[in-house]
Write a structure and sequence with these properties.
Elements (H helix, E strand, L loop, with lengths): L1 H12 L3 E2 L5 H5 L2 E6 L2 E7 L13 H20 L4 E10 L8 E4 L2 E5 L3 E10 L2 E12 L5
Antiparallel strand pairs: 1-2, 2-3, 3-5, 4-8, 5-7, 6-7, 7-8
């Protein structure tokens, strides 16, 4: 648990804040966010609960992190409150180790009236561990 407090302190000192989440993401998180030059960045401190059978970061954790970060970025750039993931392609490049901090800076590739295309690299320090490309549909406000 000591590395967790150290990592959290490191993120806080660099301007990161915990994102208020509920549901499934609350089980995966906490998720961290900060703005850099008007662009959102996201972080996840990997913990023992994130391990797979080989003791590395479970791929589903990386996919969930990429999906949520891309979705939040789509919501931020569109100004629309409700979006849904239509497609998320993920390529695992290298293993993540428990205790490392995953970071992503999703980038909008194209935005239409109803779809937003986003790409993201999930990194640890300078290492790319995964790449994700997502398509997000802007939903009509449900009342």
């Amino acid at each position: 648990m000591d590395h967790l407090a150290t990592s959290a302190d490191k993120l806080k000192s660099n301007g990161w804040k915990v994102v208020d989440t509920s549901g499934f993401l609350q089980l995966v998180g906490p998720l961290w966010q900060r703005m850099v030059d008007g662009t959102p960045e996201f972080a996840l401190i990997t913990e023992d609960k994130h391990h797979n059978r080989r003791g590395l970061v479970q791929g589903g954790v990386i996919m969930t992190f990429a999906d949520r970060a891309c979705g939040m970025t789509a919501r931020f750039v569109s100004g629309k409150p409700t979006l849904a993931t239509v497609q998320l392609d993920t390529h695992f490049v290298e293993a993540g180790k428990i205790g490392e901090i995953l970071i992503t800076r999703p980038r909008v590739v194209r935005s239409t009236r109803s779809l937003i295309f986003i790409t993201a690299e999930v990194t640890v320090d300078k290492r790319c561990i995964a790449m994700a490309n997502g398509v997000f549909k802007i939903l009509k406000n449900e009342s």
